[in-house]
Write a structure and sequence with these properties.
This protein is an all-beta fold. Strands 2, 4, 5, 6, 9, 10 and 11 form a seven-stranded mixed beta sheet that branches. Strands 1-3-8-7 form a four-stranded antiparallel beta sheet, with no helix packed on it.
Length: about 110
């Protein structure tokens, strides 16, 4: 069964760090373009970071230099290391298999207090 399960969200103070993990089942993340998205209350879902099978990564301007997407092939997971968190990073964070797989995780809440 193809699935993605996110974990690692929580409440953190501004300036702190969190590490989100996305565990894949039923497919190999190394063979797919993978991404993290987020959706804040009242806003549209936005792309945060992507990683390709050749390990090329791209970050949104709003998180550049603070967030890092990576992949653990042995664990079949994709992670998002988030540093220097700001209150505006508060959102539900979603993992997504973009291509060739097409699957979303259920999301994990990240709340950054000021």
């Amino acid at each position: 069964q193809v699935r993605l399960v996110e974990s690692g969200g929580g409440l953190v103070q501004a300036g702190g760090s969190l590490r989100l993990s996305c565990a894949a089942g039923g497919f190999i993340v190394e063979s797919n373009n993978m991404a993290w998205y987020r959706q804040a209350p009242g806003k549209e879902r936005e792309l945060v970071a992507t990683i390709t099978p050749s390990d090329n990564t791209k970050d949104a301007d709003s998180v550049k230099g603070r967030f890092t997407i990576s992949r653990d092939n042995a664990e079949n997971t994709v992670t998002l290391q988030m540093n220097s968190l700001k209150p505006e990073d508060t959102a539900v964070y979603y993992c997504r298999g973009i291509s060739p797989i097409a699957v979303w995780g259920q999301g994990t809440q990240v709340t950054v207090s000021s």
